[in-house]
Write a structure and sequence with these properties.
Elements lengths: L39 E6 L5 H9 L4 E6 L2 H24 L16 H16 L10 E5 L6 H4 L5 E7 L17 H10 E11 L2 H13 L3 E3 L11 H8 L2 H8 L5 E7 L6
Parallel strand pairs: 1-2, 1-4, 2-3, 4-5
Antiparallel strand pairs: 5-7, 6-7
Helix pairs in contact: 1-7, 2-3
Length: 270
């Protein structure tokens, strides 16, 4: 239940340093020098095992991205995977014997012991067919994405929001548990900036119709054409279809995938 969930009372209370130590001081939470404008921009709500984030992290190396996941052990799995990928990346950098100076010392600096472990972790990276990257820009947080987003993110902070294969909650009396609803859309619109994009995908037709309808009816969102200028060269679309664990499962079972993306429109002028 939410009783055990910790969340900041407002975004300024959040210490991002525990999640992104390259960019924030993990003790004070302050931005590190040279990274003053860096903030989380992509949020994957109900990220599950994190397949989307792992795929996007090397594609958008300068963008901080966050998975929100409510299940404890799943969040822990994603956390461990990120740590492993970072260590493997550090090991790669050191083995390159590149004379270039390393980035300033941070709490992610690897020890010899870490590096032994990283040898095994490197196999994990290879096995996962992931692109090389630092993975310093990817993080995960145990949180209820339906409740506390404005506690974590300021108005217009995010440029992308992902809702990939969310739980369907079939029964009508459970519809309020759905991750897309008129009330929640107001919150998503608040944290998403004008020009930002919401991506939804599911293998459950009824849920798709519901999500697509509610987003389509909302005055701050506009349905995007998959071949239109915003999406035709957007690598996120392909990742949304194929990168997540649930998406792969649907593929194995030869199920259908229903996709939509919506543009966050500018706020109406007062
Ligand atoms: N997006 C992932 C994928 O495509 O593989 C996971 C899909 S899984 C069917 C739905 C995930 O959403 C589960 O991991 C579940 O624990 C998580 N979840 C459900 N409600 C949530 C909430 N309110 N906040 C955060 N995560 C939630």
């Amino acid at each position: 239940s939410d009783h055990s969930l910790e969340y900041p009372t407002q975004p300024s209370e959040m210490n991002w340093g525990t999640i992104y130590p390259t960019y924030f001081d993990s003790t004070t939470g302050a931005h590190r020098a040279g990274h003053e404008t860096k903030n989380v921009e992509f949020a994957d709500v109900g990220c599950g095992f994190g397949g989307l984030l792992m795929q996007l992290a090397p594609l958008f190396p300068d963008t901080l991205m966050l998975g929100l996941e409510i299940r404890v052990h799943v969040t822990q799995y994603v956390h461990d995977k990120i740590v492993a990928l970072r260590l493997a990346a550090q090991r790669g950098r050191i083995e390159d014997s590149d004379p270039q100076p390393q980035p300033e010392a941070s709490s992610t600096e690897a020890t010899d012991e870490d590096l032994d472990e990283a040898t095994q972790n490197a196999q994990l990276v290879e096995a996962a067919h992931l692109a090389p990257g630092s993975y310093d820009n990817v993080g995960v947080l145990r949180a209820n994405g339906m409740k506390f987003l404005p506690n974590f993110f300021t108005k217009h902070q995010l440029s992308k929001l992902f809702f990939l294969f969310p739980d369907p909650h079939f029964k009508s009396r459970k519809h309020k548990a759905r991750i897309i609803s008129p009330t929640l859309l107001a919150e998503y619109a608040y944290v998403l900036r004008p020009g930002g994009i919401v991506y939804i995908i599911t293998d459950v037709r009824e849920l798709y119709d519901w999500m697509d309808k509610h987003l389509g009816q909302h005055p701050l969102f506009k349905r995007l054409d998959k071949d239109g200028p915003e999406l035709k060269d957007d690598p996120c679309v392909e990742a949304v279809y194929t990168a997540t664990e649930e998406g792969k499962k649907v593929e194995r079972n030869r199920g259908d995938k229903w996709f939509s993306a919506f543009l966050r429109l500018p706020d109406p002028t007062q």
